[in-house]
Specification:
The chain has 7 helices and 5 strands, in the order H-E-H-H-E-H-E-H-E-H-H-E. It is of the alpha/beta class and 127 residues long.
Length: 127
């Protein structure tokens, strides 16, 4: 999709879609308002990878804690730069403890209920 052209969004998303998952990236961030407008018109919840999207109307996001991510990146950099390990020797890693962010307003607008366990495990809840 061209960054400046989301006019074809309706043709890119199958008619039987139940939810929209958004990866993090500049195209998504630049066009989030258009994506949100489309999702609202179809009554589709948005699950994001970027925390600010929850504030902007996504139902939820599962995101890395940036401090923890920075520490992990520093440890990998040390292994490469100081310990002289080849990048091919390092395992692929992912955030060990991603944080759940929820938007109760977006959920209510879609007439969805958040389970108590989900609410209890959220790091941040937008009221």
């Amino acid at each position: 999709v061209e960054e400046s052209d989301l006019t074809n969004l309706v043709n890119l998303i199958p008619a039987d879609t139940d939810v929209i998952f958004l990866p993090i990236g500049p195209v998504v961030e630049k066009n989030f308002a258009a994506i949100k407008t489309f999702a609202d018109s179809k009554q589709l919840p948005i699950i994001a990878s970027h925390g600010p999207n929850v504030v902007e109307g996504a139902v939820a996001a599962l995101v890395a804690n940036h401090k923890d991510l920075g520490i992990a990146c520093g440890q990998l950099a040390k292994q490469i730069l100081v310990d002289k390990k080849a990048i091919s020797q390092l395992p692929v890693e992912y955030p060990k403890a991603p944080e759940l962010l929820l938007n109760k307003q977006a959920t209510a607008a879609l007439k969805l209920e958040l389970p108590a366990a989900m609410l209890a495990s959220a790091v941040k809840i937008i009221e």
